[in-house]
Design goal:
single chain; alpha+beta; Heat Shock Protein 90; five-stranded antiparallel β-sheet; 21 helices
Length: 591
Amino acid sequence: MQNGRIIRNTFYVQLASYVGAAITSSLGSLIDGVIIGQYLGVDSIAAFGIINPLMVILALIGAVLANGARSRFVRLMGSGKTKEAQNVFSLACALAAGIATAVVIIVLVFSVPITRMLGATGNAAALLPKARAYMIGIAIGIPARNVIWVLWAFVPIDNNRGLPVIASAVMTVTNILLDLAVVFVFHGDTFEMGLVTSISYIAALLVFMTHFFRHNTFLKLSFKNISLKCTGELLEEGVPSGIHRLGHTIKGIFMNRLLAVIASSAAIAAYSVYGQAEALLVPMAAGIADTVSALAGVLTGEGDRPMMKHLLVTSVRATFIFTLGVSVISWVFAPQFAALFINGDSETLKMSIRAVRAYSIGMPLHGLNLIYQDYIHGIGRTRLSAVSGFLTECGFMILSAGIMAGLLGADAVWYAFPVTQVLLVIYFIAVIFLENHRLNIRPEGFWQKVLLLPDSFDVTEKDCMDRSITTMTEVAKLSQEVWGFCEAYGCDDRRKYLMSLAVEEMAGNVIEHGFSKDKKNHSIDVRIIHKGEDYIIRIRDDCLIFDPVSQLKLYSDDDPAHHIGLRMIIRTAKNVRYTSFLRLNNLFIKI
């Protein structure tokens, strides 16, 4: 059996990249809030909170395209369609910049009515000038921000895990320095605070562009042969992310307007602090969910049910431990966190502390709900993921706050979050039960039911063989097992020989050369599949990037005995393909 070490390690390494970049990025908004709250006053932090929901909608196109394109990209790569995958990336970048520019123009033209719609009305009408000014300043950088969304999703897949963190750090440092300059040098207000955030987006984009100057990158920005035919597919794939973010915006508008009716600007300021806690803490869970979505897409393309189970088990364990720790820390330090934004107003400070602690209560369940929602998206269940995203960000939140408002007043807004997480657990249990019944899923066991994979997803257990190997002795043993596996299906001697030779040559080559290149522990996952008339070998390792197919083309034909085994396999197999993404070598051989 495969031990899942490669997928588990890839999950944690990719997780570090996604979470590191997401947290670093969220610090920009957090820093804006801290400096505005400390130096520009309660009205300014309330105005900042009013505009926050709009920032989600302004980044909507980038998020939709990034998630939709990545989901399609990894499935295409998993099934070997590399040219189509490349087109998906270039198209996503072009659409992200173009559509975002048009959206920003609309926002600037209709800035006043949009600001009123966001909640600068009723008891909060006096906040309109400051809120509108911040919105205009920050909207300028949205085209750059949306392209960053796409690059964020793709660059780690293209074996460059560190660049998103570096770009995020540059964005954060730029934002901090310019924020301080606005306050202490230029004596600016909310417009200038928004504008410097836009400048920080542009700085991060320039860092991301350095990826395309590296050698051996798969991603290429090429707009010559872009096909618009798959635009609809990208948008459809990204619908769950779009609805999730749209729901977040609707929720924010509803909560701001609810507080404007039942409370005061102090409650709106407290909700702004709540929003900053969310902006800081959500990326931690979202980074895990993002990793699950990317890996689930790859494994779906490969049709690998056992590794899907390993992925979910690993992610659930990591999420619960991580979010539980974050929850405890955020509860303990809620007073200090709230004090970063609220200065000299005890009533607002007390409400802000309650808001942050209410959020911390719901964090563990929120993390589990989020990874399952993104898992569903990763396996291609777009509509179900879209519905789940809407209920997560909007449906259950608005319902809970609306019902509790009469009893708890402003506190209903923040306590709606933990209540929503309980409702979502009940909802997902119902989804698992109904989908298993609808798809007539027969595999037994809890995790097999949770996977939501129909029986037709892959071959039966008797038609495949999964092994993890680490030594040449295990390679030799597996080569013999493969011979027996093929013989059980009445396979001819020629193909039995080629299958055994392929495992011995390819896996042995990885151990001989790949394992010795660094001081890390490695293993090889080998999967043997009998499907129809074909026999398929999939070999995956996490060693240094190496393409044996391309490398063999460099060997001189003057020495026909050189790597004769590899030559025989590649020349006689029906199909041999190699892909490298997520820092994994994946070799597929069909015989």
